[in-house]
Amino acid sequence: MSNQDDLETDYKNASNELPSGEVDQFILKAAADAIKESPEEKEHTKTNIIQGRFSLRRWQTPLSLAATAVITVSIVTSLKPWQVSTPMSVPVPSQPVEMKSDRIISQDKTSAAKPAAQLSEPENTSLTDSMKRTKARTKTELSDAAEEQLATADSVSDKGKQLRKKQEQMGIETEMTRQKAIIPEPSRSENIPESIVVEQNLQKDNSPSLQAVPVAAKKLMPDIEQWLSLIEQDIKDSQVENARKKRDVFLRQHPVESLSEQERLRFQKIQQALE
Amino acid sequence: MESPLTVQKEQHTSEQLMLAYASGNMGAFTDLYNLHKAPLFRFLLRQGISRARADEIFQDIWLKVIKARNQYKNTARFQTWLYTIARNLIIDEFRKEGKIEAVDFEEGITEKSSFLSSQNSTENSIDQDNKQKYLLNSVKALPFEQRQAFLLRYEAGMSNMDIASITGTNVETAKSRVRYAIRQLKLKLGGSQ
Predict the structure, then answer these.
(1) Which of A40, A118, B43, B190 could bond A187 through an S-S bridge, CB–CB 3.0 to 4.6 Å?
(2) ipTM of this predicted complex?
(3) For chains A and B, what is the number of CB pairs under 8 angstroms?
């Protein structure tokens, strides 16, 4: 034991090194700087940790960023800017103008609400006005309407066909009913009176292909009449290609079985002319 | 040797000083640093590393203490915590320099014989007039775990329980390592006489 004590004494006497003053200063400065950096936050954090509190200060920035992200995402998903807003492929037709004719045509607003890809509103109005004035302009604009129908290649709804058949059986109907039965295309609805005028004008042309169609029948199916007239006019004008196109569209919209006998005969003549 | 009561007072004071520093009291850190800087520094010097390297490791230890000031809990003794950091840094240093031969669960860390032999050669050249220097060199030449135990006892004034806690072993092993270290030193000192 005394040896051990001697050893300890000897060692204590021998071991007297100290760190340099520079090292002391460096460490003390580091300790002081650590306290100066954030004493309040340290105190606040320590207090909150001890008390188990949620430190809003620490979470303020992350929470605000998260809230911003959530709001942005919700706005973007609700607006959906990546979806191409498809405007109405067909413009909504204007309300038809009352025609000053023997038959005042009152248009149903709902029928006009479903447009086809035909004439726009200004064109409808101008077409209606022009049809009233002159025969040539009427024909041209009707032809334009038919051309647009060809371009879109739209077909009459089955419902419209069925209603039209019923109308045939029932006889004369009101204009409003007829308008409902027909696909509410602005050109067609607008052309109802026009077809009548056209028919009258065509009759005035004394075209051999044209036949006198009873007014009642024309009232019932003006679109067929219009079609046939236009096709006949194209044949007359030697526009065979256009006539054939119109014929094809006409067939798609009005099968032969749905035509009346007179219309069928007339169509057969058109077929023979186109062959 | 300091009395257990004195040591106990210092330990209690160290924990209080550390908590006070964690609360922002710079003066507490100054006292704490002055209380432990000398034995800790010598603990590093006796490991057989250069003084420059010992200065660096010494600074690293205190920077770790400063950085972890808010995480320090009174449940752990400050001195145990301090020397555990020091021991880990020394082991890292030895690994970096390739001085560690083996690591055993019971035997602990074993230094390479080449390192020990260099220490012994230095030791042999010391004459009796430089007995103190000879003693210090002999301590450096001790096996790693014995050296750790000896220094923790005679530099830091730790008990066998604290030594066991720092070195990761049991009290009996810590006790035997200290005893073996003392025996080795006595043999060398007795042989030199």
Answers:
(1) A118
(2) 0.83
(3) 81
